[in-house]
Amino acid sequence: MSYTIKSFDEYQQAYQESIQNPEGFWANIAEQFTWQQKWDKVLDWNFEEPNVKWFINGKLNITENCLDRHLKTRGNKLALIWEPNDPKERYVRYTYRELHEKVCMIANVLRNNGVKKGDRVCIYMPMIPELAFSVLACARIGAVHSVIFAGFSATSMADRINDAQATVVLTSDGLNRGTKQIPVKRVVDEAIATCPSVQKVIVVERTGWAVNMEEGRDVWLHEELQKVDKDCTAEIMDAEDPLFILYTSGSTGKPKGVVHTCGGYMVYSDYTFRNVFQYQESDVYWCTADIGWITGHTYLLYGPLLTGATTLMFEGIPTFPDAGRFWQVVDKHGVNIFYTAPTAIRSLMAAGLDHVLSYSLDSLKVLGSVGEPINEEAWHWYHIHVGKERCPVVDTWWQTETGGIMISALAHVSPLKPSHAGYPLPGIQPILVDQSGEEIKENEVEGYLCMKFPWPGMIRTTYGDHERCRLSYFAAYKGLYFTGDGAKRDKNGMYRIIGRVDDVINVSGHRFGTAEIENAINQNKHVVESAVVGYPHEIKGQGIYAFVICNHDDPGNEQYLRDEIIESVVAEIGKIAKPDKIQIVNGLPKTRSGKIMRRILRKVAEGETSNLGDTSTLLDPNVVDEIIAGAL
Ligand code: WTA
User: Where is the Acetyl-coenzyme A synthetase N-terminal domain (predicted)?
Assistant: First the structure.
């Protein structure tokens, strides 16, 4: 299609056009979709309130664009390939026609269970096909989906359900991940005991385990499906109606509900997918992310389906039954485009080359990376051993809030530089600013990464609290969207993302606020106070290091305290946020005004205590010596 860029010259041309005439540029792209009513105006915006609206008064349904639109030309093309956790179980494939039917039927089930346009529906499900169907079914009837990664605890789920006031929860009986068995429905039961807004729970039978079904509240999906038709009229949505909420961590407080809207998100996810990965009609594409994260939303589901691609969904983990599983799946399904996270690459690197060398990987054409900076060693390993030096590695930088990829090479089109995300996509206007918010115009510099102009896929608000959105992203530097990341720009204008400059840490590509983990630790009755920092971790990118002051009423031994603290974090957030190191301390380095000097704790966690910088403002410098002496 005409809006796929085919050469670096074309990229430069498109980029110029998108800067000189952003509205014309995006209108041209938006024309390619099915709209029930065309927009009156392309863009209205200011970054002060902030107020960003794209395709004003345009009417559409994103699922008509993901599904119905393709039926004529791609009805029998594979839309979704599902690969189960256990390789001995048979995979399942759905054509666009079949996917359309599944989505319509679940949409009807939702309607039968009282879900209306605008209602919030929470989805807490393993990576089974019904998860994909359910997300699209919500979109079909205009319900706002809020997917919660199935690794989060009951408490985390309850917080999110209560914040969104969700009325319906879609879930499964259980889940098998690797060799682990997780009683998903039991976690849901525990969560919604504190969620008065929930009226219905719709349960998918996946494992066949016995579960509690509460009369009047819980229903089985397979029974509900018996009662519905195969057709479902799509709800007509305004371009700016919310499509979904996805919770993500920031530097303060509880996770916030990032809101994306129907029109802009659709245009942006499709445009970025086809250009970055250079998808071609017969390609099989695989994104290994869970749909519980933004990468799964935009690049497992919406982007590929909008483009009419064949997208693969994997229930399992990279190391089950062994560390060759990814490569076995690539060969089995003839995957052409493969998109994963640096943490997965590093863990497979550590497992040894034999696992990769046993597979041909001949089908691969493009490799992608997302979620955290990819170190050069991992980049080269991926490029040489997986891509056989014939596949470009596109290092895609973006965020839950940006909706889609912002800075990345376009595969086979842009120059590559290991550990560099590269150039901004057309329509994206990044700038680097210094501490005072002044733009740094030269190259070969480092600064805070901001955006000075809106793009269609950007965050519109944080659910239920617009002021929080303003404070989190638009208040640090006037008139700019602040990403929270630091970046370098090289002499050719290519960007290299360094990482978060706020109190957000990125553990195996998962975002956590240090305050959020501290709150979880502080729930433990033995804990008086805690401070959490990130430190470089060989596989996870960043590990979690917790400094904890315990009370002495019930001292126990240190290992016991550590286990207790871990249990609190698992209960509050989930296993994914388990601290890697817990140091029990008597005091924390505080300034006279009571602020914890995290800079010092970071140095200790990194093992770099020779130069701690200025410690003269510390209330009690002895605390630092004690912490250094006890460092893990
Ligand atoms: C980090 C994931 C370096 C970054 C899509 C960002 C990256 C945060 C990259 C967003 C990359 C993501 N190189 N860092 N290619 N991609 N990040 O919201 O710090 O889960 O701010 O979105 O991950 O994480 P989120």
Answer: 11-66
Domain that holds residue 402: 8-317+396-487
| Torsion angle in degrees (nearest 10) through CA of 151, 299, 476, 512 | 20
Residue 220 CA to ligand 1 center (angstroms) comes to: 37
Q: 67 and 111 in one domain?
A: yes
- 236-277: pLDDT as tens digits: 999 999 999 999 999 888 899 999 999 999 999 999 999 999
- Interstrand relation of 495-500 and 481-489 (parallel, antiparallel or unpaired): antiparallel
527 and 608 co-located in one domain: yes
Count how many domains the chain has: 2
Q: Which amino acid is at 361?
A: L
Rounded to the nearest angstrom, the distance between the alpha carbon of 251 and the centre of ligand 1 is 15
Q: Residue 393: pLDDT above 60?
A: yes
Pocket of ligand 1 (CB under 6 A): 248, 293-295, 370-373, 395-400, 421, 483-485, 497, 499-500, 506, 511
Ligand 1 centroid, distance to 449 Cα (angstroms): 12
- Looking at the chain, the whole-number percentage of residues with pLDDT higher than 70 is 99
Domain CATH for 43: 3.40.50.12780
For atom 13 of ligand 1, the residue with the nearest CA is 373
pTM recorded for the entire structure: 0.97
Q: Which residue out of 372, 494, 501, 514 has the highest number of ligand 1 atoms within 8 Å of its CB and is therefore the one to mutate?
A: 372
- Whether 379 is covered by a domain: the verdict is no
The neighbour count for residue 564, using CB atoms within 10 Å, is 17
Report the largest interatomic distance among the alpha carbons of the chain, rounded to a whole angstrom: 74
Specify if 501 maps to a domain: no
In a shared domain, residues 264 and 137: yes
C-alpha–C-alpha distance, residues 632 and 318, integer Å: 29
Nearest-atom index, ligand 1, CA of 369: 15
Q: CATH number, domain at 542? A: 3.30.300.30
What is the C-alpha separation between 20 and 188, in angstroms, rounded?
A: 50
Same domain for 527 and 457, yes or no, is: no
